[in-house]
Structures are given as C-alpha cells and as structure tokens.
C-alpha cells in the first residue's frame, strides 16, 4: 500500500520511511505541508502520516484542505503537541488517529493497519478469498492452511488485490497503489509480478483466484 509521509524532522522522516518500506509499504516522503498537498493532488494513498508543526502549510491546514476537497484518506498525526485541546482540534478536523512523539514504531505500524483495514471495510487483520488468507498483523499468507512465502513486493501486490477483491483493477491503478513517484519501471512490471504471484498462490492449488481482464487489468475473485 502507498503511504504519504510528511515530517519536517529529516532524521525522523528517513527512519520512518525506512521502517515503512521494510514493512512492504510504498512511501512518498516530504518535509513540508506544501509538498504534502502537491502529492495529495497527484496520487491516491492508503493512509497519510502528518506532522503538525511543518513549514508552509502545517498539518492542520493540510488535513482541513483534504477534507474540504473530499479526500477521505485516513490520516494519523505525529506530533509533540500532546494537550487535550491539540488532540481535539486534530480529531475535529477529521484526523483518524493521533500519536505523540516519541513513539513506538510497532505502535505506529499497528495503528496504520487499523486505519487501513477500517477504510477498506475490513473489521480484522485478516483478508480472505476462498481458502486464501492474509493476516496483515502476522504478515502471513496461507492457502489450504499451507504458508506461502512471498517477497515484499509480491505481498504488497496481493494485499492490494485482496483489499479490492471482485473489483477489476487497471495496471495503472495497481501501479499507483504500489510504487511511489520515483518509480520508472512501467506498467509491464505489474504483469511480471502477477505472473510471480500466480505461481505461488494459484498454480499449486486447484482453483484459480487471479484473473486477467483483457484490455483492462486484473481481478482477484472470491470463489464463494
């Protein structure tokens, strides 16, 4: 899933970006509110991590503009401002969560998982399609009870397909969900990773889940 990170402390920004990428997320990182808003105008994100005290537009302004423009992407604030009034202001503007610095990276990852599963309409960390199960909390994929080992990119692709199961996704939509602005590979790379994924979650089993929609893209269909 693609995450926008806006944090003006450069060292902390780099550490968070590295941690997110190690968890399989694609990250667009910036250091001020103006760049954050520019990213939001250009791309869709699974979640946004916003610092409050940033140069240019602060986090409150970015969030307020998002909601006014109808962008309902879940937002978590990272901030040193820990008074009740600060939290109320952020939540009233439409923030989904609030994490005070210094914080645990494990807690940040857990809160991100909660936000993204709620926004996708899922009530747990589990995504299922027939006998295929993805547990995002344990970072584990099984089919017919057998664990399937996936690379970080394969895992991210499967997560996108499961979150949008039964919905046809274009190559551009998949690419936009998986890669940041620095990516220059082209949509044919999606076909390559779909082929890798099919070899692991479809070919060894009796029922095919990933289907090609000619001229459009791909869909993961729930056989239920």
SSE topology:
Layout: E1 2-6, H1 10-22, E2 26-30, H2 33-42, E3 47-51, H3 59-68, E4 75-79, H4 84-93, E5 97-100, H5 105-119, E6 126-129, E7 132-135, E8 140-143, E9 146-147, H6 152-163, E10 169-170, H7 171-178, H8 188-201, E11 210-213, E12 217-220
Parallel strand pairs: 1-2, 1-3, 3-4, 4-5
Antiparallel strand pairs: 6-7, 7-8, 8-9, 10-12, 11-12
Tell me what you see in this structure.
With 224 residues, this protein is an alpha/beta fold. The chain has two domains: 2-119, Rossmann fold; 126-220, Arc Repressor Mutant, subunit A, CATH 1.10.10. Helix content is 41%, strand content 21%. It has eight helices and twelve strands. The strands form three sheets. It has a five-stranded parallel β-sheet with strand order 2-1-3-4-5, with helices on both faces. Strands 6-7-8-9 form a four-stranded antiparallel β-sheet, with helices on one face. It has a three-stranded antiparallel β-sheet with strand order 10-12-11. The longest helix has 15 residues, at 105-119. The protein is elongated and about 55 Å long. The protein starts with a strand and ends with a strand. The model has no long low-confidence stretch (mean pLDDT 87).
